[in-house]
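Complex 344.
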Amino acid sequence: MKMTFRWYGVDDPVTLEKIRQIPCMDGVVTAVYSVPVGEVWPVEEIEKLKAEVERKGLKMEVIESVPVHEDIKLRRGNYQLYIDNYKENIRRLAKAGVKCICYNFMPVFDWTRSRLDQPLEDGSNALVYYKQDVDAMDPTKMSLPGWDSSYSPDEINGLINAYKELGEEGLWENLKYFINEIMPVAAECDVNMAIHPDDPPWSIFSIPRIITNEANIDRFLSLYDDVHHGLTLCSGSLGCTTANDYTAMVKKYGAMKRIHFAHVRNIKILDDGSFEESAHLSKCGSLDVVEILKAYHDTDFEGYLRPDHGRMIWGETGKPGYGLYDRALGAMYMAGIWETLEKN
Ligand code: DNO
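Predicted structure with D-mannose bound:
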């Protein structure tokens, strides 16, 4: 296991110097953020980022994410050009020493929450998903940090309608086409492609979401028979419903060597199916983090792991979910569990 930390580039208030001082860190997970979705990342930008990271004593072997253009997911418009660009990005990143690329196939919206700073009992605040509030949300009138904010309300409406029409099976078809196009390139470059599950793992705003549960992940993996075709197994996404057994998934896909990247955090599932992002410690949420790490350990996990979202604690402000302190606590907690497992 290689411990990593997400870093949003030179404008991130959580600097590389700070990340370097978390004792267990091997590298950062980052991306070129200045290029619009779908375009080719300039080699100079990739090299600059890598040099910056390495100058601070860290590695840049994981990219999160190379986003997939909506035209690819809808297989319309310029999709073939965007797929060709995607392949070129894989080649360029491989040349820069990148070993793993995280991406997702969520229509229009990335992770969705009803509030980004819900006060918790202990005075910290966290991201939460309260079902009733999300049901009342108008996605054309808002934006969340993970969302592409370049769309106008009309464009968002158009996209939502296009996906409703496409439906789940249509989305599967388009994913299959995309995978069959990019995977030969990734395999040739020896880059592991790691799809991130949909967060939350159910349909929102009446549009399809398909990377949601074990049956669908089985179906996803069967789209292409190569070990480079794999997963970012995210406990924070898959784990927010009791319908998914995250630890069982680690055992299964870990044994198949298809987990290339692990996102681990805890989640407190509430009675109505809503959830709050809690501290990483097992007793703070609904997931047993020791059991999770044990499953990774038992399957000889050699991929990358990162603490996922953290709460905001000790008065910190910043990018929701991506402050320094709580994620650093999460990383050290998990590094401690891992060391214990190694010694046993
Ligand atoms: C949330 C993240 C996701 C993830 C993308 C991967 O914080 O886990 O936004 O980066 O879905 O493409």
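The two ends are 16 Å apart (CA to CA).
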